Amino acid sequence: MSTTSTLFIDGEWVASADGGTRDIHCPADGELVGTVSEATTADVEAAIAAARAAFDRGDWSAVPAPERGDFLLRVAAGLRDRKDQFARAETLDTGKRIIESEIDIDDITACFAYFGKLAGQDAGRIVDAGTSDVVSRIQYEPVGVCGLISPWNYPLLQAAWKIAPALAAGNSIILKPSELTPHTAILMMQLLHDLGLPRGVANLVLGAGAVAGAPLSSHPDVDMVSFTGGLETGKVIAASAAATVKKVALELGGKNPNVIFADADFDAAIDNALNAAFVHSGQVCSAGARLVVEASIAEKFVDELVRRAQLIRLGGPFDPDAETGPLISAAHRDKVTAYVAKGIAEGARLRCGGTWGEGDLAKGFYFTPTVLDEVQRGMSVVIDEAFGPVVTVETFETEDEAVLIANDTVYGLAGAVWTQDAGRAQRIANRLRHGTIWINDYHPYLPQAEWGGFGQSGVGRELGPMGLAEYHEAKHVYQNI
Ligand code: NAD
Atom 26 in ligand 1: which residue has the minimum CA distance? Predict the structure, then answer.
């Protein structure tokens, strides 16, 4: 592969049809990471045609599911072998700490291993037709050609949550990663190719969403589009996909409540509130961006949170002392800056942060951990996703009020409750309208447990058995004997 032949179409590394390229810079210091092809509409159409032809030939779609599962287990082994290469590429594209990228690659490996094992087990079922004259069964078949569109915050992880189940189910895929973070997608295509995936089954297009991504939701030869990204883009994709009635899976944003009761383990709740809000500089769909604290401990809790937030050390991806890294781009830093300014203008009180990195950090897009209190429901800072290191504080007096505040969002991705009262923990968990609820923890997830959103956080689920089912059609075969 030459450095600018980075589209992978029908088993070949090719350059863009018009020779277009894009430079990728590391958000931590602005250094050039690489130059990649920028796909044209014709390139995307070629990728769709290759995926369609591979699907129709049955090179992969007709392979028995247990064999497809074995292949995914080999992908997991390949990821283990190439972990350092993948982690370094992820870190240079995103600016995130290398230790976080290493964890991401471990999680991606676990995802492939999970779907590799699940692939051969999910064989459909026999249906009791109520008479011995009929044989009836449900069999699962691949949907067909799947367009997979992923964001920049966890570039390969979010892509892997789609690639692994889509391939496990026998589909052909076209992956369109974020234009800001293409390099681990390139490595992934190379790994799939090296392991012998038939040509055309997995294709890669790179570039801006409006060109490289849009055909994946509009083209009649794409049967399904699976998208992870922002709410507004999700709406555009869903509307576009409606014209050809594609299957649509959407993993969108969140404005996630972290509810702290007065009886919580104070130190653990503080540690986790910091991690919830500030890990990866808050560029996490499930970030605990809304702290909802029982009024009787709010002052003490927020004082300590602010004290600790000011101690968080920003730094480059290979700085072993860094605790969090930069935002993805100058444009994104401007967005977060404007968001905080608007919150203050609406009446929020800035307790700490709100500034850019200085000195050596001025070369990157660093933003200091920010706490805003005295916010009111209805302010933009408590409604909109900042996708940066910004946490707001609201207070409550009763369980009912805590639930009301926590559910007061169009989103519904994730939330947490902190209390040592097990009954209360379960009561609150049952009443929160979010796809993941943590009790006395924040952020862990499991490949075998479904992930996804209530409300406008999305449609469908990734991971777990439902994450595979998204990529299946169910066919009822009924035989009168
Ligand atoms: P984004 O919506 O700007 O872009 C996501 C992807 O869509 C990119 O690959 C982009 O190029 C592509 N795209 C843009 N316009 C398109 C179009 N018209 N047609 C097809 N593709 C198009 O999102 P982002 O800024 O990359 O990512 C951040 C967002 O992702 C946040 O809102 C975050 O909450 C969300 N996210 C959600 C989850 C989840 O699991 N729910 C996980 C990670 C990120």
Answer: 151
pLDDT at 3: 63
Q: Which residue has the tokens 């297009």?
A: 205
Residue from 24, 153, 181, 250 to probe ligand 1 pocket by mutation (most atoms less than 8 Å from CB): 153
What pLDDT is attached to residue 123? 77
Report the nearest atom of ligand 1 relative to the CA of 177: 9
Q: Which of 147, 141, 86, 75 is nearest to 111 (CA)?
A: 75
Q: Give pLDDT < 70 ranges for the chain.
A: 1-3
The Cα 88–Cα 335 span in angstroms is: 27
With beta carbons less than 8 A apart as the criterion, state whether 16 and 40 touch.
yes
Q: Which residue ranges does the chain devote to CATH 3.40.605.10?
A: 7-252+457-475
pLDDT in tens, 373-403: 999 989 999 999 999 999 999 999 999 999 9
pLDDT of residue 2: 55
Q: What confidence tens digit (pLDDT) does each residue in 297-309 have?
A: 999 999 999 999 9
Q: Provide the pLDDT for residue 122.
A: 73
For the CA of 179, the nearest atom of ligand 1:
11
The CATH 3.40.309.10 portion of the chain extends over: 257-439
Count of residues making up the chain = 481
Domain 257-439 sits in CATH at: 3.40.309.10
Cα-based torsion angle of the residue sequence 314, 319, 320, 325 in order, rounded to the nearest 10 degrees: 40
What is the residue-wise DSSP string for 167-222?
HHTT-EEEEE--TT--HHHHHHHHHHHHTTPPTTSEEE--S-IIIIITHHHH-TT-
Q: Is the dihedral of CA 339, 418, 461, 116 positive or negative?
A: positive
CATH number of 7-252+457-475: 3.40.605.10
By the 10 Å C-beta count (0-12 exposed, 13-18 middle, 19+ buried), 73 is classed as: middle
Phi, psi torsion values for 267, nearest 5 degrees: -65, -45
- Of 205, 222, 228, the one to substitute when testing ligand 1's pocket (max ligand atoms within 8 A of C-beta) is 228
pLDDT value of residue 1: 52
- Report angle CA 351, 356, 362 to the nearest 5 degrees: 155
Specify the DSSP element, H or E, that contains 79. helix 65-81
Residue nearest atom 9 in ligand 1 by C-alpha distance: 178
> For residue 10, what is the enclosing H or E element?
none
